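batch_manifest entry 22 of 60
target: NAD-dependent epimerase family protein
source organism: Candidatus Bealeia paramacronuclearis
requested by: lab member K.T.
priority: normal
notes from requester: please return tokens only, no post-processing; we will run our own comparison against the previous entry in this batch. if the run fails, retry once and flag.
--- input ---
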Amino acid sequence: MKFLVTGTAGFIGNHTALRLLNKGHEVIGIDDFNPYYSVSLKEDRNDRIKDHPNFTLYREGLENLEKIKEIFKEHRPDKVIHLAAQPGVRYSLINPEAYTRSNVTGTLSILESCRTYPVEHLIYASTSSVYGANTKLPFEENDAVDHPLTLYAATKRANELMAHSYSYLFKIPTSGLRFFTVYGPWGRPDMAFFLFTKNILEGKPIDVFNNGDMERDFTYIEDIVSGILNVAATNPGELNPEKLHVADKSAVAPYQIYNIGNNKRVQLMHYIKVIEDVLGIEAQKNFLPMQNGDVQKTFASVDKLEKNAGYRPSTSVEVGVKNFVEWYRNYYQV
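--- output ---
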């Protein structure tokens, strides 16, 4: 099939594009190589796929609607996997405009392009951050998500609402994926697992927020990609489509939302201990209070994703961290 994938130089997008290409699909990639973090890392990710005969790359910002429409018109993709975004909870406190431009305006470009040049299925990235400070665990897709704690989370919730309206109005099949703390080789340098490894190897202290009293549902990148592709193979309109409270009692929106996590609660201090064990170095720890916009615990129910798309995460943090550290040592020649 022909897939259009946004963010192919990003962490999740690059792994997804590579898996699709290895399965024999054609991939049309869009990425603007944003300098939010190391562009050289993004170029090196792109090197993994750029010479594949079934890959075409456009270096373009999603906010350029006319250009995005031109790409859709030329290639007429069967399915779209929209993973490009301005990521990061903490950076949204510093540069909020980047989030509305990339996450809201950029997603609108994708929705409008799917409306103009219809596709079989649009899969897009959301985040566990939409659950805000919810305390009921595990998080389930039908939990209230009306109180995001950061602009990043607010923009991703906006993406879900935008997709819902386009699914209803224009019958575009959409599936939103709420990612839970993704980690692994070729990961983002601004994420904790990357910073912990870097600082420990350099003999620098690591910042441990909320004095280490945190839990995360750490999800390995290859499990995430399997989930994405499993969802891409579904038809949202056939999976108990949402019945809408409108005058037309037959109205439905071919729209789904899924958690995509490891379905395990891992203490932050245990995660750090695993990194220390793999590195063979004990970390110097700088214990700090909870950072603004952060949450204490995340934990995903993946029952819906397992039922509808056969998702079964299988990678333990011990295996995932070992794979990441091996990649990090090799990539940075440590």
